Amino acid sequence: MENFNYVRPAKVADAVKAMKKAKDGKFMAGGHTLIPTLKQGLASPTDIIDLGGLKNTGIKIGAKSVVIQAGTTHAEVAASKELKKAIPGLAALAGGIGDPHVRHKGTIGGSVSNNDPAADYPSACLALGATIHTTDRKLAADKFFTGMFSTALKDTEIVTAVEFPLVKKSGYAKFPNPASLYAMVGVFVAQGADGSARVAVTGAGPGVFRVADMEAALSRKFAGSSLDGIAVKSKGLNSDMHASAEYRAHLITVMAKRAVEAAK
Asked: Which residue from 30, 58, 147, 249 has the highest number of Cβ atoms inside 10 Å of its Cβ?
């Protein structure tokens, strides 16, 4: 691990200023990705700006949406009684992230900003049609996630909150890697207020993506049986020591059905 300057600002504006001054700075939220990469020598920033001092936490339930501040931990999202009533699938998703240590340190803002291809939150953002609030603007989830570990964020831009529209039903199901508990395949489904459905997949490919055929079928009838006969092509999906692309393609339909059945 190389030496670096460590800054822990108390205000968002100060965090942005610190990044602008840095030669090669990195923002750090929970640190679950950055710290291991530092230890392995895969990253060597000149400056680390720790966002933990911003105290930007909390969940606000509104008439039409839920706003979760970026510094809110997975454990806080999972434990929120109000969120369990408003968007049950989102609370359930948070409760299945990693282990208790990860859930009590990792944050929703850090997760969406990092956009790990096997992370859980990006699928919820995409399926629920979330809006990502940053220090500069508001971005629709469909435009925010751009690829593997890649987002539309600028170098000095910080996620401040994630806003989720209220939906009729939501559910999440994943097939976790037994060691890391990351999703080998995770599927989030949502039925909007108008009855239309959105389906987002994580873990299966190089980035989170939606499945149009499943969305069309569930928009006609929101039931697991509606997905019978719908198959996702394996081309372009991940294939590794844990699962082949073909197996992941199969799991997408299985997990999608389970997510629909679990939806509340």
From this structure: 30
